[in-house]
Design brief:
about 170 residues, mainly alpha, about 0% strand
């Protein structure tokens, strides 16, 4: 073993073997790290995409109700019957927006209840001799028999209850 040639060969072989072993192990560790980084990046991209879809759906829901919100404030005192007709016509637009947002609602049962309450308020006394009363007097009777002093405020409140689901948690 005293021969320097053999010592150089063994030393070189150990160096090459170490380099190969380091390359193989380092490559596997590097690959694992890369795969984990790609997976984390994909999860982040999906989360961002879902957040953006929620934002767009929320904006569409709010946009569908925006004309009604502004019209109720501006036109109620001018002509309640005209406002009533507007809401009856817009109910289909509102229904479509509510259904488009439904997959994003965190609590489907509560969301449906908010929508049902809105429809009930809009359709209050519809088809009866009292149909014009809440629209022209700004008061209406609830199932509990209470007469709120502000029918249009009740409608706006029902809209806000629907919008509650379009707010980020």
């Amino acid at each position: 073993m005293g021969d320097p040639v053999w010592a150089a060969i063994i030393s070189g072989a150990l160096g090459v073997g170490g380099a190969i072993l380091g390359t193989v192990l380092g490559g596997k560790m590097s690959r694992r790290t890369s795969v984990e980084a790609i997976a984390a990046s994909n999860e982040n991209a999906i989360a961002i995409m879902k957040d953006q879809e929620f934002i767009v759906a929320s904006a569409r829901l709010r946009a569908a109700f925006a004309p009604a919100q502004s019209k109720i404030i501006i036109e109620f005192y001018a002509d309640g019957r005209k406002l009533r007709d507007f809401f009856y016509e817009e109910l289909g637009v509102h229904a479509a927006a509510v259904e488009m947002f439904r997959p994003f609602a965190s609590d489907g049962v509560a969301y449906q209840k908010a929508w049902d309450e809105y429809q009930k308020t809009i359709n209050h006394e519809r088809g009866t001799s009292n149909e014009e009363w809440p629209w022209t007097s700004n008061v209406f009777e609830t199932e509990e028999g209470i007469i709120p002093p502000n029918f249009t405020g009740a409608i706006l409140d029902k809209i806000e209850k629907i919008f509650h689901f379009a707010s980020p948690n």
